[in-house]
Design goal:
Helix content: 25-40%
CATH topology of the largest domain: Rossmann fold
Radius of gyration: 21 Å
Distance between the termini: 61 Å
CATH superfamily of the largest domain: P-loop containing nucleotide triphosphate hydrolases
Strand content: 25-35%
Shape: globular
Low-confidence stretches: none
CATH architecture of the largest domain: 3-Layer(aba) Sandwich
Order of helices and strands: HEEEHHEEEHHEHEEHEHEHHEEHHHHH
Amino acid sequence: MTPGVVRIHDVVRAARARGASDVHLGASDSAALRVDGRLVAIEAIVDDASVRAFLEAALTAHQFAHLDHNGSADGACVTPQDGGPYRIHAYRHARGLRLAIRLLAERIPSVEGLGLPLMLASFADRTAGLVLFTGPTGCGKSTALAAVIDRINRTSARTIVTIEDPIEYVYRPLRSLITQCEVGGNLPGYAEAVRGFLRADPDVILIGEMRDRDTMAAALTAAETGHLVFSTLHTNDAAQTVDRIVDAFPCDAHRQVRTQLAAVLTAVVALRLVVRRSGGRCAAAELLIATEAVRALIREGKTHQLRNAIVTGRAAGMQTLEAHLDALLLRAVIDIEAARAVSVRHGDLRCAQRAAS
């Protein structure tokens, strides 16, 4: 292993020790860590040959070929010397190759350990339905989803299939039988994989991301045919999630899609990561549960009323993002500035209103 490759591993280990979420470095270029959501410059310049050698070990042959042919590639890696798993995005730029490395949790955490609503743990007991984890990039969707899948694995004997791009958390079969497949490596695409796995006797299907109409249609069909389906979307809240799915289809199919979605949806979990007062970040979540009232709003296309359904649905386990932020403020886990940084409804932060009055 060349000194440059060793240097990259050193940076990854040091970043994990500092509690960083991401590492950015490249050939003959500046480097930085993302710590508590902020970029912090570091001295870590490596040459192009070292970056390529690192990627040859970290990526599959298919992924590395994709980098050479298309200028970018995604992969994931678990190596003992780096202290845990990480996801890699490699891309070519004017001065060579750059790496964006997302550091993942060393062990799959529990729902309780993540500080998420305990209602999420109950999703592991479901036998059918569609559960969506949403939020911007880097908000903890993959980790929260992994926590629920791990709970299923520990508590019930089921067949679990994951379709990912790339595979991030690697599960060790406990009570369940788990098959993990990678788009591009083992499978041509999400939609084709979902349709194919419907014939493989799955109980639970994890779809890494619903990126397009075909994948959304396949996910709805899988949930409609009695499977428990988990997936992610890059949307900000529950109402936007419903609209994104419906709007992905032609206008003349909207009514049918709303009817399908209303029938199969179990929950939408919209996540944010918030800076703690003591350092590091914690999760805050909006939680929409598909009660009969919520299903009716989705069927009728009244997504603008979903926010009010969440506010009044506390008895069913629902909560707004601001309610969770208020709970964190009351426990002095976060401060008002951190809460405001992730909320677009500052007026609904009651603790902030009390502090200002």
